[in-house]
Amino acid sequence: MTAASNLNTIAIGVVGHYGRTAKNLLATYRAGTERAVGALSAGYEQLLKKQPLPWLNGEIKARLVDTEQRLSRLVVNSVARFAAGANKTVDRVSGRTVQGIEAFDKQTAWANDLMVVGAIRKVNLPVARLSLRVAGRIDEASHRLSQRVAGPVKARAKAQATHGPKTAVRRARRVVRGRAGAAV
Question: What is the pTM for the complete model shown?
Fold first, then answer.
């Protein structure tokens, strides 16, 4: 394998790592929004249940909770649509960048045998490898962050698939409340 192909392969690897990092951050944003909205919904519902005000009867409380849940779904669905669109954009940009690197490689293949170009590429190879390692570490860190933030969301999705949406929402709220209480 020549230094030129190594540099191009490394550049493609860096693009891949940063593309995955962007997707991980979008997933973190989506999951964090879901968790925050879930926690706010649970707190709002608890607040309404605890209010002893006479003008807040059971029917009014149920309507308020229903309205809040609809707004919560709207926010979560909007963020999910935004994240899906952004993921498609990341794929498109990454794909075009890789195509550009490959096209550049083909267009400059004639220069691979030039001594000056070979010497410059050999000098740049350690820096390129370092860039690839840095991009890999950033990718790993963003993946860990995404998994950490998405923890209860994944549990909710699994429960929803198994037990239906209402049971899954109740379980997710308990998880959020339990974690909020454990953090205090």
Answer: 0.72
CA 19 from chain centre, in angstroms, equals 11
Distance CA 44, CA 52 (A): 14
pLDDT in tens, 26-83: 999 999 999 999 999 999 888 888 877 777 777 888 888 899 999 999 999 999 999 9
Cα distance between residue 88 and residue 130, in whole Å: 28
Residue 41 to residue 94: CA distance in whole angstroms = 37
> Quick check: 30 and 83 in contact, CB under 8 A?
yes
Does residue 52 sit in helix, strand or coil? Answer: coil
112 CB neighbour count, 10 Å cutoff: 14
177/161 Cα distance (integer angstroms): 21
How many Cβ atoms from other residues are within 10 Å of residue 8's Cβ?
Answer: 20
Q: For residues 76-95, give the mean pLDDT.
A: 97
